[in-house]
Amino acid sequence: MVHLSRRTVLATAAASGASVLLASHSATAHAAPAAAGEAAPAADLTGHDPVTLRWLEGGTPAELAAGTTWGVPWPRGAFAPDQEFSLTSDSGTPVPVQTWPTGWWPDGSVKWTAHAVADAAPRGETYRLEAGSPKSPEKPVRVTSDSGTVVVDTGVVQVTFGKSGNDLIKSIRRGGTEIATSGRLIASRQDGASGESATVRSETFTSTVKAVHVEQDGPVRAVVRVEGKHRKGLRSWLPYTVRFYLYAGSDAIRVVHTFVFDGNEQKDFVNGLGVRFSVPMRGELYNRHVRFAGDGKGVLAEAVQGITGLRRDPGAAVRTAQYEGRTTPDAASWDTRVTSRLQWIPAWGDYRLSQLNAHGFEIHKRTKEGHSWIRADGGRRAEGLAYAGSPTGGLAFGMRNFWQLHPTELEITGAASDTATATVWMWSPRAGAMDLRFYHDGMGEDTYDKQLDALEITYEDYEPGFGSPYGVARTTELTFWALEATPTAERFAALAAANATPPLIVSSPEHLHSAGVFGSWSPVDRSTAARKTIEDRLQQMHTYHREQVDQRSWYGFWDYGDIMHTYDGTRHTWCYDVGGYAWDNSELSTDMWLWYHYLRTGDADAFRFVEAMSRHTSEVDVYHLGKYAGLGTRHGVMHWGDSAKQVRISNAAYRRFHYFLTADERIGDVLHDLVDCDRTFLVLDPGRKIREGAYEPDPKALGISTTTDWGALAMAWLAEWERNGDPIARTKLLNSATTIAALPNGWAQGGDIRYNLADGTYTGPTEKSVSVGALSSVFGLIEVMTELIGLVGLPEVKAKWTEFCRLYNGTKADQIAATGSSWGSLNLGQAYARATAYAAKQLDDSTLAARAVTELRKGAAGYPDSLSFATKRYEGPAVLNPVDEAPLSTNASAQYGLAAIQCLALVGDAIG
């Protein structure tokens, strides 16, 4: 069973095309047409040739993180949503696969399908996906439910989820062996910042389960979603959503953990956040094993009671068996000088690997509580996997992006007792507590005038009380393996690699492009000298920004995934401490540029770079609870610190790629939650610092801009519509587009324009006036309009939008002739080269195409052709660490990237 939406799906929502009723307006208002376009015809299904798939990193992975799930697009009219698909490995072996639709074209044909395979399935370097009946798994996933539990049986392990209480997972069994019990979340807080007070009180909270939902029940993949809060006594806080993914024939559980901060940053300092299991320990102490993955393929392999390196030797066979994790030979065969003295050999029951920064980890161990920890070893960047168990079974447990998301820790306690405790610390108790307080005291900015003046120097839009972290979130991915025995060092290293970088199946840039998804782009093309020059610049620019992450150590629990906004050439560093020039927070569509770069190249490094950004910006830079829910925060020193809370940052345009390429349910949640973000304009006045008089929002006449704001809203509605969700999304999308186009100057119209929250319609002046800003189209408006018009046609909308694109970089004379006014001195000329290119394509105008290429090459407010992207190396003592420096800024890179990519796709012939 596949649950496609949390809201009721109307059967006609995906197939009814573009027809939509528009609300009537008073006689004094601008009259709207009765329909937004002609209804789309029923799909004429044509089918599609088989598609070749490969692993993102290439080759054939040794292990998977339980399984893998990926998305594949299809051209309009190719398949019905209920089409079955078969999967075959490159050896010709049928592979069990589970398929479900995740997106639809307006004619009702399937646009995107998601597919899942298990780690137990046959693997190859490539696969063939085609229409046909799928092979059934030998051990299909089975889900059963009663009043108190949900049980998922993969055919190898049986996992019991509790519907109430503290344990998300009650038990994990493998055959007749209980591998783990009492899987729960833990969080601790202290009432003051670390180091600021001698008397800091701390308390620990445990998860309470509120609801359990089975989102999929096989046959290849089952998904169980658990929701709740952390609780101690009367206080419940830190709401969580945890999804568990189980695959047929697999002994692994993939986990996606999301929590939302809903505390008071002045007194709630989280000093520990983790996932914990109890692990039954069996056998003699010397037959109990602990494993930690280190840097690369490194493995620390130890026993709870070591019998190697002693003054007396138990024998080579005994030593080797313990070191390799096998059951030792019968003790009767040992040297009696050892067996008679086993009681004098310490049992090391507690271990922990702490990664408190991105550049080093330490492993410590002790015999038991109340005694000293000793250092076992250390290294640079741990892969993030540990194991506790014996040759009769045990639990491997780990966290993805372990060192990148520091301070983290893997902890085993009580391994010398009957039951050990295994904890993945997403925030290590060994680190200082989270300090989410704003970074300055306001500096006297207690009026709007002062705040606007301060904006002129630090570019920070500060306002008291607006730097709150209440409602921001973080998502972490984990993997657990219920192993039948202590793994070999080789297998443990392979599991660690799968945990750190879960293998993903992907389709080629050529197939993605042929399906007609994501608007105007094309695969990399270096067939001519002129194209090669642009392609080389795009690659050089992308590589520079990606490598800056490691050079500048942009890592950490709240930071990993984002990059910086502006560079300070004097200090040879990014402006990490300068107001609005610090963290980028999706400004000017950085996420979108990076996703298009991956689509074109299919490069694994490009995917992992933007995947991390998408995960970060959709959680940390966006509010999920509270009065700002649905809004993102403008760029700044702290991700949530700036007072500009905007839909242009929570923008669905930046997350949608991630969802369709991976079918990630958490990203689906984020997209769905944006459907009603137009309601935020009832709560927060975006123009409060320049408004005269009180803000009295009218739901029938809100002041929502038709460009920057509407572009973000439109993409949220488009994403929901194509995912077959709430029908109001389609209604608002088409109503708003057609009523904006009906304004005298469309998207360039000035004056008092109002938005109706109920149905998405706009009304405004009947006389022409102009109001155009440089930022109007650089937060996804160009891209959403390209897709919308391609989906539903709408001739009036297409004509008005094409006019806007033609005129933005046009002459004043052309602007006056079309709209009655000059558009003034506009910025970002290079960024809008793609608007010119769009108009050239729609109008089949070679003169406009040549103009677009000229605009791209001149580089107004961007990168002219004369600018070299070459880097210069700086080393100590000029800088703290060796770094490469280039004359690039993130805003300009994002917009140059998008402009160049779309110009190559739209007016490539004019480029040469």
Automatic annotation (TrEMBL):
Signal peptide range equals: 1-31
Question: Which segments constitute the PcRGLX/YetA-like N-terminal RIFT barrel domain?
Answer: 50-131
| Key words of the record | Signal
- Source domain of life: Bacteria
- Which residue ranges does the record annotate as region Disordered? 125-146
Q: Which InterPro entries match?
A: PcRGLX/YetA-like, PcRGLX/YetA_2nd, PcRGLX/YetA_3rd, PcRGLX_1st, TAT_signal
Ranges of residues in domain PcRGLX/YetA-like C-terminal alpha/alpha toroid: 502-910
- Residue ranges constituting the PcRGLX/YetA-like central beta-sandwich domain according to the UniProt record: 141-496
Protein name (record): Tat pathway signal sequence domain protein
Its source organism is Streptomyces justiciae
